[in-house]
């Protein structure tokens, strides 16, 4: 039986979640939250590394961040635009089985798969709450909230999370993806051009905006409600 979690973080490719919100994951795990990762593709079209190597790196990165469980689907890399009902139902069924309070997905950016992944997850979260949307063995579940994280670029965030205390874990999780960021043999890609340094610079810049050392940004379709402004 699938164990329930507090947070489900979704990505199109292994390393998406770590780039966008690895610090936030580590911070919530440190507070006792149970977190699961869901990755839609195995990134089989990546210029460097192999599918097997990428899976090993993803497992190491998840362990560094303290992730409770990692789920890997087999949707086609660069094929997420052509969504099929059966594929969407796989995500719906997992959302219902895991019963997360929060779901995260990639914000749209220069890589089309990120936006398509986000759209699929948003549809799945919506369908998971519909009682008469059929999925065998699991019943409807309504997610408390869902938010988009940023991979490439710095769109205007709806809110930031302070990840200063756990930022070393995020860096270690990114460094686990040696085949993508520091390949010994391979071709030049945007990921091999000091990409981790770029991510660190972005998170440092967002942190400066919030008055902390490092922060990660998120976008919400609905304005989040702050329960107590005195708590900061």
UniProtKB/TrEMBL annotation:
<dbReference type="InterPro" id="IPR003737">
    <property type="entry name" value="GlcNAc_PI_deacetylase-related"/>
</dbReference>
<dbReference type="GO" id="GO:0016811">
    <property type="term" value="F:hydrolase activity, acting on carbon-nitrogen (but not peptide) bonds, in linear amides"/>
</dbReference>
<protein>
    <submittedName>
        <fullName>Bacillithiol biosynthesis deacetylase BshB1</fullName>
    </submittedName>
</protein>
<dbReference type="GO" id="GO:0019213">
    <property type="term" value="F:deacetylase activity"/>
</dbReference>
<dbReference type="InterPro" id="IPR024078">
    <property type="entry name" value="LmbE-like_dom_sf"/>
</dbReference>
<dbReference type="GO" id="GO:0071793">
    <property type="term" value="P:bacillithiol biosynthetic process"/>
</dbReference>
<dbReference type="Pfam" id="PF02585">
    <property type="entry name" value="PIG-L"/>
</dbReference>
<dbReference type="InterPro" id="IPR023842">
    <property type="entry name" value="Bacillithiol_biosynth_BshB1"/>
</dbReference>
